[in-house]
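Retro notes
What went well: the complex prediction finally ran end to end.
Inputs used:
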Amino acid sequence: MVGQNEKELIQRVLTGDKTAFRQIVVNYQKLVNHIVYKIIHREADREDICQDVFVKVYLNLSEFQQNSKLSTWIGKIAYNRCLTVLEKKKPLLFDDFAEDDQTIDSMPSDITDPGQLAEHSDLSVKLKTEIDGLPANYKTILSLYHLDEMTYEEIGEIMNLPPGTVKSYLFRGRKLLKDRLLQKYSREDF
Amino acid sequence: MHLTDEQIQNYLDKTLLDTTSIDQHLQQCDECQAQLELYRIIANGFKKDSAPEMSAGFVDSVMKAIEPVIIPETVPAQKSFEWLTLFGGVGFAIVSIVSLIYFNGLDYFINTYKWFSDKETVMVDSLSGFGKHIFSTVGLNLQTALFIALILLLFGLLDRFLLQKRLKGMRVFLF
């Protein structure tokens, strides 16, 4: 449900107050950025896509039903916009998204060279390297859950997945990361 | 007996109602404590792994992009308004027909109806003739054209279906 402040903000935008829309952009640019960053690899495309998302939000704000959170609605627009971009670049799509349970478990990490591994002595760098190696849909779910602190239901609404599937992806993604870290580094490294 | 990954992750997410037995196990088991710590590091890693900041002029560029856009409708469409429009339209049509019959007689109404009906028949005939002319010029008959359209439609639907399944990360047939 939309809070009172957000209702007023939306109403002001709908009556032509563009400074109110600026506030919406400021409030939700991080969320949109997180989603786009996790799905779109090409750095040059990311900011343009984020901008497209907010233009779409502005154009469709009068259709927002207000029975879900504004953040979920904007997140859904961002996610769908990313899918449309990937759809236009079909060959990339199949690299970016994990297809099923079997492939995700057997999917190799991007970094396997011992030389490269040695460079990543810092724990946060090691972890970031492994996170970057995850398929886009796992990264998106894990990021929305831990970084944006969304519930299974909210993530499911954004990604058009049942909450049970979101939970399953979340658990599998974290286990995969844990297994990869243990496979490559010794316990003392953590 | 160690805790399962699922138990540890549920404990980490604080989704368990009763954690007494897990708390007790964790106090005695270094292995499970280490696993929990690793999961904690992963969760914190995501909190730190935020995307790079947007460029300083991002908000301004969005505002510039919406500048030429006409403001969307001020008030969201209400369902009651849609019903009002529908009933209003039907009511207006009924009043018009009744007035026409009342002031000009039933014959006038029937003649008007026939006039519209004739015009409609002429238009349908001319459209049909135009269609036949196009088909004969290209050398197609209606059956072949429909067959081609059906095949294209099936391919389109299949493409959408496969794409949606791929996007959701689901297995499709053997692929």
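What we learned: Chain B touches chain A through 43 residues (CB under 8 Å).
What to try next: split runs per interface for comparison.
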